[in-house]
Design a protein that fits this description.
With about 575 residues, the protein is an alpha/beta fold. It folds into 4 domains: about 150 residues, DNA polymerase, domain 1 (Orthogonal Bundle); about 90 residues, Beta Polymerase, domain 2 (2-Layer Sandwich); about 80 residues, DNA polymerase, thumb domain (Beta Polymerase, domain 3, 2-Layer Sandwich), CATH 3.30.210.10; about 240 residues, Alpha-Beta Barrel (TIM Barrel). It is built from 23 helices and 16 strands. The strands form 4 sheets. A 7-stranded parallel sheet has the order 10-11-12-13-14-15-16. A 5-stranded mixed sheet has the order 2-4-7-6-5, with helices on both faces. A hairpin with a 4-residue loop joins strand 8 and strand 9. Helix 1 packs antiparallel against helix 2, helix 7 packs across helix 8 and helix 19 runs parallel beside helix 20. The longest helix is centred in the last third of the chain and has 21 residues. The radius of gyration is 26 Å and the shape is globular. The structure holds 2'-deoxyguanosine-5'-triphosphate, calcium ion (2 copies) and zinc ion (ZN).
């Protein structure tokens, strides 16, 4: 990097554009302009090249999706570290204004009214005006809306100290990169809920083996990513990142690693059972080692070098972290029936992806090429259907056009000698009454169909369940998208009898999606073991709205493993030929 170059990251560029879009929306700027900033942000995020350097050198011209106005702003920001336009815009609003967008049910229009009429610029203030009833002076804030807002605030407060898997994973990778640069650091491990593949994470737990724990602790506490130090000892440090994520680090000796790794990986429930089984063998286990309970009657303790040695001592097969929840893994490990869990490399393709035809930001070809770059053999496109008008859903004629485009692209691949197939699908809305957004003759044109609920979230449970069961009973429906509609840390699942839906899926031979978007991870892992055993097939789908979105597949795999899924339980581990046969193509 050249002298005095500001330290601006790709994320800063993208986030700044997103925030500009949001603030312009609050000012009532026209939607084309705000969309240009949003699309620009997505382009910056997914651009395949050093976009920061390109922006700094003012060489953005020609990159699709970044017009002149954005080029200038990105150049200013990347080359100077500041953007006057943004600073001026920010100065007109409180810093807390962005919180309001995290509340389910509040869009720019409502937020604008709240801000202008009642000076609501933070969640704290929003709660005040909802509780006092002041908010009812504004149009569009009826009793039900206010109750929903208060519920959303309460939900957010409950989840205040949780982070989604993507945020946590990226932070952990950044920190591991840093730890690897420390001369005193030996082996570096991430433990805790992240290692277990949990869908959300409270804090990160790092273990570092070292001969010099104090040096490791001091270096960690002084790291550039530390926003606040919570505790700083000679073997243990806790810090906060600037997004509030807490990171605990323990510096240990190499001998302690298997014990510490086992202990700090958890879960608590799993550990309780491990320790109880250890006691039955006359030993006590803690994070540092194994010790005989009764010195006089000490059992023979083998050398423990790995976690597998600990399980072996208990006459158990090695239990992978994903399964350590005390939900049946001990019995399976004792019987030798633990599943061989699916891995990222098992995936050969994926379904449920969007393009610019609906609300995605990459073209059909761009999506296909990104999938090829990921090493996939096929890609299913499933843009929204017409009832999802807010997502620019396709009507029957645009769908027919897209099917033709896909056939053409497949021909082109064939001519180019590229062994890759795009499957033509649709993410067809399940309407309120359980019927589908396209008639059967339209659905019959498609290679496959994903059916999803995108509205009427508040139906009573029985009605919501029946609606979904009716939809998947249509023989054209290949799979059910994001079963519960939850948005982790933001929106509760709608009321639905998941078990009844699983039974219906088994009955109608409908695949259930495991949506890999880190905000969804839906159907929840807690249901997969049993769904699998009831004969339900899974499809791990990124629900990608950009080329980068395809990379979310890894989070789907983490959660699939947590759900005891094996390669054979997942459609998109199959070859193109096998998928074609499954889809009767
Ligand atoms: P999180 O951070 O809330 O997402 O979940 P974990 O599982 O990472 O929990 P955390 O960070 O509090 O502790 C890491 C692991 O350390 C946990 O999974 C099990 C172990 N552990 C911590 N405290 C206790 C405890 O009081 N009893 C037992 N048995 N294990 C504990
Ligand atoms: Ca943790
Ligand atoms: Ca912790
Ligand atoms: Zn959807």
């Amino acid at each position: 990097m050249s002298n005095g170059a500001p330290n601006v990251s790709r994320d800063t560029l993208a986030t700044t554009l997103e925030q500009i879009a949001t603030l312009l929306e609050l000012q009532g700027e026209n939607p084309f302009k705000t969309r240009a900033y949003r699309n620009g942000a997505e382009t910056v995020r997914s651009y395949d090249g050093d976009i920061v350097a390109i922006a700094a050198n003012n060489e953005l011209a020609g990159i699709p999706g970044i017009g002149k106005a954005l080029q200038d702003k990105l150049h200013e920001l990347a080359s100077t570290g500041k953007l006057e336009f943004y600073d001026k815009l920010r100065a007109q609003f409180p810093d807390t204004i962005f919180e309001l967008f995290e509340i389910q049910g509040l869009g720019p229009k409502k937020i604008k009214a709240l801000y202008q009429e009642l000076e609501v610029g933070s969640i704290a203030r929003l709660k005040e005006v909802c509780e006092s009833g002041e908010v009812s002076q504004l149009g569009g804030f009826g009793k039900k809306t206010v109750a929903n807002i208060l519920e959303a605030i309460a939900f957010r407060e409950q989840n205040a100290s949780s982070f989604d898997r993507k945020t946590a994973t990226h932070a952990a990778e950044m920190i591991c990169d840093f730890l690897r640069t420390l001369p005193d650091a030996g082996q570096i491990e991430v433990a805790g809920s992240l290692r277990r593949g949990k869908e959300t994470v409270g804090d990160l737990d790092f273990l570092v083996t070292t001969k010099n724990p104090q040096a490791v602790c001091d270096a960690f506490a002084a790291a550039p990513f530390v926003d606040r130090t919570i505790a700083h000892g000679s073997t243990k440090v806790s810090i906060n990142l600037d997004n509030g994520l807490q990171c605990d680090l323990r510096a240990i000796s190499a001998d302690e690693l298997p014990f510490a790794l086992s202990y700090f990986t958890g879960s608590k429930e799993h550990n309780v059972e491990v320790r109880s089984r250890m006691r039955k063998r006359g030993v006590s286990l803690n994070e540092y080692g194994l010790t005989p309970i009764d010195e006089a009657n000490a059992p023979e303790i083998p050398e423990i070098r790995t976690e597998a040695d600990l399980y072996k001592f208990l006459e158990l097969d090695y239990i992978p972290p994903a399964l350590r929840e005390n939900r049946g893994e001990f019995d399976a490990a004792a019987e030798g029936t633990l599943p061989r869990l699916i891995e990222l490399g098992d995936l050969r393709g994926t379904f449920h992806n969007h393009t610019v035809a609906s609300d995605g930001n990459a073209t059909l070809r761009e999506m296909a090429e990104a999938a090829i770059d990921l090493g996939l053999e096929y890609l299913g496109i499933a843009d929204h259907s017409k009832s999802s008008f807010q997502a620019n859903g396709l009507d029957a004629s645009r769908l027919q056009w897209q099917i033709d485009e896909i056939r053409k692209l497949n021909d082109e691949f064939k001519q180019e000698g590229v062994n890759f197939r795009v499957f033509a699908g649709s993410e067809v809305d399940i309407l309120k009454d359980g019927s589908l957004d396209f008639p059967d003759d339209v659905l019959a044109q498609l290679d496959y169909v994903v059916a999803s609920v995108h509205n009427a979230f508040t139906l009573p449970e029985a009605q919501q369940t029946q609606r979904i069961i009716d939809a998947i009973s249509n023989p054209h429906v290949t799979m059910l998208g994001h079963l519960t509609g939850r948005l982790l840390l933001k929106r509760e699942p709608y009321a639905v009898d998941v078990n009844a839906v699983i039974d219906a899926a088994a009955e109608t031979k409908t695949i259930i999606e495991l949506n890999a978007n880190p905000r969804r991870l839906d159907m929840d892992w807690r249901h997969w073991h049993s769904a699998r055993d009831r004969g339900v097939l899974c499809s791990i789908n990124p629900d990608a709205h950009s080329t980068k979105g395809l990379q979310m597949l890894r989070f789907g795999i983490d959660v699939a493993r947590k759900g005891w899924l094996r390669k054979q339980d997942v459609l998109n581990t199959r070859t193109t030929r096998e998928v074609e046969r499954y889809l009767n193509l």
